[in-house]
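The data layer described in this paper is built around a simple, fixed record for each protein. Because each token names a local backbone shape, the row as a whole describes the fold. We quote a single record here, exactly as it is kept in our systems:

***
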Amino acid sequence: MKVMLLINPSASSVDWKSRMAANSALVGDHDLTTVETTKRNDATSLAAQAAEDGFDVVVVLAGDGTLNEAANGLAGTETALAALPGGSTNVFARTIGMAPKATRAAPQLQAALARTDCVRTFALGIVNGRHFLFHLGVGYDAEVVAQVERRSSLKRTIGQAIFVYASFATYFKHYDHRRPSFAIDFPDGTSVEDGFFTICLNTNPYTYLGRRRLSVTPDTGPERGLVTVTTRKLKVRTLLTLFGSAMGEGKILRRSKNVDYHTDLSSLTVRGHKPFPHQVDGDFLGRAETLEVSHGQASIRLIVPSGV
């Protein structure tokens, strides 16, 4: 096959070992072209150009943010997307069954590309024209991502520990946890007016902490819509309870009186009581006053490992 290997050289765990593993898995059996990103949104234009040039697959060695950019470039095309973990968390790659490190995931990809049934159609979420693979975060969650991005050099040095630090720093210094920031309108006519923190999920888990999945819903899947989990209070005790629940299967979280839980959504609208932060797939997009979210209107072709 004609394959583009797209690398973000600044990603947290991209090093010579991961590069060599990716190259070794692809170069012998395929017509391989390797490119690197140099700035934000590079991956979108590079992936779109790959589709235009007739590449069969774009393999992304990077973190979730670069993978999201590539997916935006490939949405609606015949060129497939493949993920090799190169970031600090690699949520999407691990969600679809890839090993957490590129040196172990590269042989999985090599085996998948040798099969005729390695490609699946994967429905994307869309928020204000931006596609997302696994989730949209609104409010507190997005502000945590913003604080992490402001400390990007530390992210490469200390990895996921930066998210723990940023979570506490955001709560006490950078986010209003007394007054709700937004409301959500659902297709059935119901609304939530007191939103502090919403995760809109296309897949589960929400994220990983080390080897541990943070699972919030069993209600995602190929034939299902989006799930929203909205926290209606932002007290430390509430957050710790919900976090502890997510370390398991999320049952307490979903049943909490402080949480609004909606499933199988084809659309929703987020209305700000004031400008609020949002992020997609771990990539901070800034502040907005309104978000129009939908699902199932766009898809990509996705390479999945054996047994998935």
Summary: The chain has ten helices and 16 strands. The chain has a mean pLDDT of 92. The longest helix spans residues 161-174. The two ends are 22 Å apart (CA to CA).
